[in-house]
């Protein structure tokens, strides 16, 4: 199941993609990682989907990544006495902690943390930014506001507070229950929603205890203010453009996306670009030209993966969405300009033996026209450093740890293989050559560039580079 592309595809499972047949077809069409969205569905639904994925993994012999995406602290207004209300621009509107249903003059906002962070002139966005309020007067249990941009407001619509760091953990009680369940069934990444500060990641790591990798979703402008610290602490980063696009001006989102992708590439952390990539395909069999260009832009920037959300979870054309996304990625990567961009933006290697070897492996592979770079890794760090170099040949990531094999699936250009560890140089070369041929990356007479750590099996000890002939 070799993919003839470097960037990976993440697909969300849901009502439109829960059967064994559809999940199998999605994988065959090009999905590398499946997303279980814990904002929707029951625990037993997610467990059944994961069982299907693991059975598919065993049947195909290919590691498949699975992400559990936690809902996070979704802030919402309460209900309304007589149905939806119309808020007029210039009108006054109160938000408070009273549990009684609202009307055209007030509504319940059951989040005391918001009131604690508000100040006069703070803006509140309701219903994905369709309605904008400005705080005139506030206290610990209320906020009197003026309607700046009006509209129709109904029960349980979302609330955003742009430019304010709210005193909220990204983990609600529901998230903690969902996380425990996700870890018990064996997901590969826990995705944290609405991360705002480094302490949010530290809290999650304490709870996860190494049982899964930590993926952070950057969807709050406050997170961008401490971007470098957040990336350093995370294992994988997602540019979640949905809420990010609500809380900041739309014209700022493209440059922020590029900034995040570039920062992740510099540090060697895999980065996923997500939200509304092929949204029209929820109900149409083909994307708009603008959507195709959006996917292509993320690939040109060097993103490790691009993601489908409702397109595969609830859309009418989930297989077509995956297929066209895969074709867009492949087409971009065949563009000579794409290779020029990758070569122009190599990050400077850090002063470590692993980075020195990884940088040398890329250069040697290019010089001798190698068929592949082969990395032996235990923790995955060796392979991730190789992917950071964006070589012009595929990366075979060989590991004896199945959890590592699955987590490496998200990395750019990496074809991960679960295999037994090696004991000496002869076995290292022989196994690399055999697997490269079996997996379709090399043929007799090709050369491979192999990196490993000696003593073999020692995590984080990459110190060896070997050129091998396939015979």
Describe the structure.
- With 471 residues, the protein is an alpha/beta fold.
- The protein has three domains: 8-73 and 170-331, TIM Barrel, CATH 3.20.20; 85-160, M1 Pyruvate Kinase, Domain 3 (Beta Barrel), CATH 2.40.33.10; 353-469, 3-Layer(aba) Sandwich (Pyruvate Kinase, Chain: A, domain 1).
- It is built from 17 helices and 21 strands.
- It has helices at 20-29, 43-60, 112-117, 173-185, 198-208, 221-224, 227-233, 241-247, 253-267, 289-300, 310-313, 318-333, 336-344, 353-367, 381-388, 402-407, 425-438; strands spanning 8-13, 33-37, 65-69, 85-87, 92-96, 106-108, 123-126, 131-139, 142-149, 151-153, 159-160, 189-192, 213-218, 236-240, 271-274, 305-308, 372-377, 395-399, 414-418, 447-453, 462-469.
- An eight-stranded parallel beta barrel has the order 1-2-3-12-13-14-15-16, surrounded by seven helices.
- β1 (8-13), α1 (20-29) and β2 form a beta-alpha-beta unit.
- α7 (227-233) crosses α9 (253-267).
- The chain is elongated.
- The mean pLDDT is 95.
């Amino acid at each position: 199941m070799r993919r003839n592309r470097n960037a990976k595809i993440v697909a969300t499972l849901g009502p439109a993609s829960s059967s064994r047949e559809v999940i199998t077809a999605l994988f065959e069409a090009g999905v590398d990682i499946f997303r279980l969205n814990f904002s929707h569905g029951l625990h037993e639904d997610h467990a059944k989907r994961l069982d299907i994925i693991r059975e598919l993994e065993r049947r195909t012999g290919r590691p498949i990544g699975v992400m559990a995406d936690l809902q996070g602290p979704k802030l919402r207004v309460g209900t309304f006495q007589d149905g939806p209300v119309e808020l007029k621009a210039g009108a006054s509107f109160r938000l408070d902690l009273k549990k009684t249903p609202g009307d055209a003059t007030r509504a319940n906002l059951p989040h005391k943390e918001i009131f604690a962070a508000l100040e006069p002139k703070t803006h509140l966005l309701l219903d994905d930014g369709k309605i904008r309020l400005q705080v005139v007067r506030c206290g610990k249990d209320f906020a009197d506001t003026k309607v700046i941009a009006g509209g129709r407001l109904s029960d349980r619509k979302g609330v955003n507070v742009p430019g304010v760091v709210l005193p909220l953990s990204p983990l609600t009680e529901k998230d903690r229950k969902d996380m425990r369940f996700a870890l018990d069934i064996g997901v590969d990444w826990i995705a944290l929603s609405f991360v705002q500060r480094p302490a949010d990641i530290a809290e999650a790591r304490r709870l996860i205890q190494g049982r899964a990798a930590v993926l952070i979703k950057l969807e709050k402008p406050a997170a961008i203010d401490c971007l470098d610290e957040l990336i350093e602490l995370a294992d994988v980063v997602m540019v979640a453009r949905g809420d990010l696009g609500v809380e900041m001006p739309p014209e700022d989102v493209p440059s922020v996306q590029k900034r995040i992708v570039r920062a992740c590439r510099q540090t060697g952390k895999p980065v996923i670009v997500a939200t509304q990539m092929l949204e029209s395909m929820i109900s149409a069999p083909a994307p708009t030209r603008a959507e195709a260009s959006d996917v292509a832009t993320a690939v040109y920037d060097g993103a490790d993966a691009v993601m489908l959300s409702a397109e595969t979870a609830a859309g009418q054309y989930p297989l077509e969405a995956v297929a066209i996304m895969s074709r867009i990625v492949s087409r971009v990567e065949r563009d000579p300009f794409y290779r020029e961009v990758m070569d122009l933006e190599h990050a400077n290697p850090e002063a470590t033996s692993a980075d020195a070897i990884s940088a040398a492996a890329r250069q040697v592979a290019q010089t001798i026209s190698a068929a592949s770079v082969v990395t032996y890794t235990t923790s995955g760090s060796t392979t991730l450093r190789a992917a950071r170099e964006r070589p012009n040949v595929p990366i075979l990531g060989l590991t004896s740890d199945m959890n590592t094999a699955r987590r490496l699936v998200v990395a750019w250009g990496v074809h991960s293989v679960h295999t037994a560890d090696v004991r000496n140089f002869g076995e290292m070369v022989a196994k690399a050559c055999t697997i490269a041929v079996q997996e379709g990356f090399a043929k007799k007479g090709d050369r491979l560039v192999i990196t490993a750590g000696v003593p073999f099996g020692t995590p984080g000890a990459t110190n060896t580079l070997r050129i091998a002939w396939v015979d």
